[in-house]
Amino acid sequence: MPSRRSWSAKRSNSVTFSQRDIYQLYRRAPAPLKAAGDALYRFIPERFLRSRQTREKLALLEDMQWWDDERRDVWRLEKLRDLLIHAGTHVPYYRDLFRERDFRPEEITAIQDISVLPVLTIDMVKTLGDRLLPDNSDRNDTYISASSGSTGRYLELRRDSSYYAWEQAFLLRYMRWHGVKLHWRYAIFYSAIMDAPVTGDDHPPYERFRNRLILSQFHTDDHSIDFYCDLLADFRPDHLTVSPTILLLFTRRCRRRGIAPPFVPRFFLCSAENLYEEHRREMEEYWGCPVYNRYGHNEGCVSAAECPAKGFHISTELGHAEFLRSDDSPAAAGESARIIATGFFTHAMPLIRYDTRDIARYADARCSCGRALPLLDAIDGRADDMILSHDGRQISAMRAVFSRTEGIRLTQIVQEVPGEIVIRIVPDEHYDERVKDVILENLHRDIGKDVLDVRFELVDDVERAPSGKIRLVRSYVQDR
Question: 41-52 pLDDT, tens per residue?
């Protein structure tokens, strides 16, 4: 998730400058100094750009991906036990909870032993506040990682330098799966809020620091996309991080203009939203390069990413993910279930059995790449993205409803009452009213007739999360 990070206090003299510190200095520098930094960056050795903590953790993770399950489980149990002992000793909420439940972290013999503890929800995190913070925390070594989330519910999380190093190590390991080198050019669509795609040379939203080009995911009209195409054609990124919706808009805009791909990266990395297979095929066919999927949370408890063989690997070294049915019993492989996750490195604000509000399926298979990390089968969506039918069924994966549709720029399904949905359409210049019949035909094919009452609305834009994410489904049934 896109996040806002800020240090809570001045770094102590004993802590060396990190990559993040260097970046913050760059952001505050005048434009001429930024330009000089852009030119010099590519000549700086990697050892000066990655902290020793990050380099050591990356080396461990690159080794661990080949470990057998037994060896990895021993390591994971040790990390979980360390977190639980820390939480039970220093965190007021967990200290009281463990005493009340007579739960003794030092005595656990399996990761599954934490299932006796209650699930921690986002609303609980907000209510508990400082009771989730350890009494031995070094505030000089902590920062706030804040996210509005795709639900729009603002949440502040406290993190420390050790967590930051782990976070960077996991990202770097993933990038190395795809052969990424330190000085490769890359572009990223970010949650930068701007009045226009360009705001002037004195404060450019598109900076080339670290060979990086930053673009706004809030400006996605045809004019902005054409401008981005020209910018990217000049920059020629080796890889690009983008949400599936924005990449699909790019693809279809270029096709309608009848132009060849204005730039061809080595790969696209999609995150923040669900990546649907029919859209992946369409995008790969046009761009002529792979489109990979990545899943994660700002809460830092669970993540997964695709390798070159497109195995959707779960980073089990980051934390423990439980896949539970609605009755809280463990789900079987291939069964849609909610993800309850525990982050091993959330010591600055422990999150134990945290409800991610995501629905997913895990796979009982191994990837052809040879990595021993387990696999996700699919991400079905968020718990509050489920559509409720007249007969009480929960319906997910609604994207197929919009297959074979033309003339639609953006779509969103809104539900306020069970059994009723509003399909909002942002039309483009090729829109034809007959597309509604195609959508209804797809809907009846997938879920049957008389299951949902459907109403259509033509709108100028769909609702976006504060981070800029576009959720296909906006359900307000639980709120009501």
Answer: 667 776 667 778
Tell me which residue of 285, 211, 281, 221 sits closest to 250, measured CA to CA: 221
Considering the entire predicted model, what is its pTM? 0.78
Distance CA 80, CA 105 (A): 9
The number of residues in the chain equals 480
Strands 387-388 and 375-382 turn out to be unpaired
Neighbours of 33 (CB within 10 A): 12
- DSSP string spanning 145-212? EEE--TT---EEEEEEHHHHHHHHHHHHHHHHHTT--TT--EEEEE----SSS---TTS-SS--GGGE
pLDDT in tens, 373-391: 999 998 877 665 677 888 7
Residue 316, amino acid: T
Question: What's the CATH class of domain 387-475?
Answer: alpha beta
Confidence category of residue 191, pLDDT binned at 50, 70, 90? low
What distance lies between CA 185 and its chain's CA centroid? Answer: 21
